[in-house]
Design goal:
This protein has one domain (about 5-240): Lipoprotein localisation LolA/LolB/LppX (outer membrane lipoprotein receptor (LolB), chain A, Clam), CATH 2.50.20. The radius of gyration is 19 Å and the shape is globular. By secondary structure, the chain is α+β, with helices and mostly antiparallel strands. The model is unreliable at about 1-20 (pLDDT under 50). It has helices at about 5-30, 105-110, 125-130, 235-240; strands at about 35-45, 50-60, 65-75, 80-85, 90-95, 100, 130-135, 140-150, 155-165, 170-175, 180-195, 195-205, 210-215, 220-225. Strands 1, 2, 3, 4, 5, 6, 7, 8, 9, 10, 11, 12, 13 and 14 form a 14-stranded antiparallel β-sheet that branches. The longest helix has 24 residues, at about 5-30.
Length: about 240
Amino acid sequence: MKKISVIFFLLVSISVFSRDASEILQKMKDAQNYKTSRGEYLMTIENNGKKITLGFEGYHKKSEEDLQLMRFTSPPRIEDTAILIRGENIWYYNKRSNRVRLLSKSAKKGSMMGSSFSYDDLNIDYVDDFTGEVLEEEEDHYILKVYPVDRDRSYKYIIAKVRKDNYIEESLEYYDANEIKYKVMNTQEVKQIKGRWTAMKLTMTDLISGKVTYLETSEENLDFDFYMDDSKFSEKNLKK
């Protein structure tokens, strides 16, 4: 778009971009508009030349509040360790100590199982949790700058590159309070499974420590829109 020094035109443009950002965020949420989901995943963490792979089962239900459960299956030393999310609350169950702990706000900013993902990264609602603006519109992508409504997140804002064909994030760049980019997430192998666009692979890179986390699944390990009772997402059920 050519620069035109007309105040009225600029104000109209800002208004349209603001509206479009809300619409894009809604479509990003709608792209994940399933009632329930489950999957089997491998999470590989590379750090300082060392590599470790964790396996887990993931369950998600969209009820009156967002319900998520991650239960780790490998390696044996962390088997049955679990993470439960109910709305804004996150619990961590340590199988070895047989203790359930409700995470504080500060703990949510910490590393999830030693990975490049924080607990905060697991619990995002693009419509309820963010406001934003369109920075740029490319032929195949929107570039958004989105701010968390909860200012107590570990990041000040995210630059999101969103595909126009399916409204899946191609990349997310995380910026801290000093506006320094410190973390980047990329998606790969986006497929449509049972009518749901899903990335088969995610890569989260910590630009400060150099730690890289790879998360992957496969089509045969995913399922959507089946019956799942809310009791699966209870503190009691964490101690399986």
